[in-house]
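Second opinion, please. Please look over this fold, written as tokens:

===
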Amino acid sequence: MTVSIVIPAYNEERLLPATLRAVEQARTALSARGWASEVIVCNNNSTDQTGAVAAAAGARVVFEPINQISRARNAGAAVATGDWILFVDADSEPSAGLFADMAEAIASGRVLAGGSTLRTEPLSFWYTFFAQLWCTWSRISRHMAGSFIFVEAEAFRTIGGFTTKLFAAEELELSGKLKALARSRGKKVVILHRHPLLTSARKAHLYTFRETVSFLIKTLFRPKRMLTDRDACAIWYDGRR
């Protein structure tokens, strides 16, 4: 069994080293099973040293010239050689326990894809509330957070990967397609929760509560217009780090 770990990265020279160190440690849970793994970083047209940082850490580096999270993930997946593909965001730190839970799900033979609940540093009441709300909804609906998605490589390619029509929430569209495919094959999509993924809360610091809520409200009422417009999804693309 081989797992390809794909990390999309846009101007992530500051947080990427910690992610790569965490991934390296977490991979021990795969090697303990005798499984192989590879790390692929997609440098998504960064203007900093993201590519050099990834290469120095021993990752395979591919380049995607168009700034879009979907394209970056797809570019990494295109060169992946694994039986399974794991997508991890460049500002997240998975644990060996989370990788072990993922490996157990894969080995069961009953799972087509899966994600994880999330945890961050302590935040304000409202950010913490919304984070917990997401985790609860994710477990109930089995929609995966983009920061941690594992999927059978053949299944990922069968559905065409991440849509390039969306500049945000592409993981929700992917989740819907994978759930439908899993049902047709007698398998399931799972959300792991025993070892939540540690992910950065930097958006809570870089953007005001008003900016965040404004984006969410606009997206709620005009989802297609907002999510298909790169400028409207500036929280992911304006380069604040």
Q: What stands out?
A: The domain at 2-200 is CATH 3.90.550.10 (Spore Coat Polysaccharide Biosynthesis Protein SpsA; Chain A). Strands lie at 2-9, 36-43, 60-63, 84-88, 92-93, 111-119, 148-152, 188-199. The chain is about 45% helix and 20% strand. The two ends are 36 Å apart (CA to CA).
